[in-house]
Amino acid sequence: MLSALPKSAHPSAKKHLAEIYNAEDKTHATAAAKAFTAAYGAKFPKAVAKVIDDLDVLLAFYDYPAEHWVHLRTTNPIESTFATVRHRTRVTKGPGSRAAGLAMAFKLIDAAQARWRAVNAPHLVALVRAGAVFEAGQLVERPTTTPITQAA
Question: How far is it, in rounded angstroms, from Cα 102 to Cα 46?
């Protein structure tokens, strides 16, 4: 998104973007996105379109437990893990054969796994996988359904 803005606008745009993804809930994030549109929409419509067009996807992490938001807001675990592999393949001037490359990538990622941060509230992962609904980071209890009575 910053590539669609002049460098002089980067500091203030970064602040506006941080207000969007660090908002306390989806409602506040949407309001911050509207403020971003108001601030930059007239002069930089391409930059605003990059954020607003995919806003639902950008804010999808708000549909999960609040304890998991810190993990979902970033792609750093993925990027830093593969940065290790990329760095090693550059140093060795390529992996050699395909099998050697796969083995090297596996061992590097396996070693990086030991340094990964554990998920906050791991007990909620099972609920997410089961399809539980979360609003504003809190579990929404499912309504109880009445059993169907069979005719005798």
Answer: 40
Structural domain range at position 103: 64-140
- Let me know: does 121 contact 50? Beta carbons within 8 Å: no
Asked if 17 and 50 sit in the same domain, the reply is: yes
| Of the candidates 37, 35, 49, the residue with the CA atom closest to the CA atom of residue 1 | 49
User: Does residue 70 lie within any of the structural domains?
Assistant: yes
- The torsion defined by the Cα of 67, 68, 74 and 80, in degrees rounded to 10, comes to 110
- The verdict on residue 69 lying in a domain is yes
pLDDT in tens, 61-112: 888 888 888 877 776 766 777 787 777 777 777 777 888 888 888 888 888 8
Residue 10, amino acid:
H
Digit-coded pLDDT (tens) for 12-56: 999 999 999 888 889 999 999 999 999 998 999 999 999 899 898
| Residue that terminates a domain, selected from 19, 35, 62 | 62
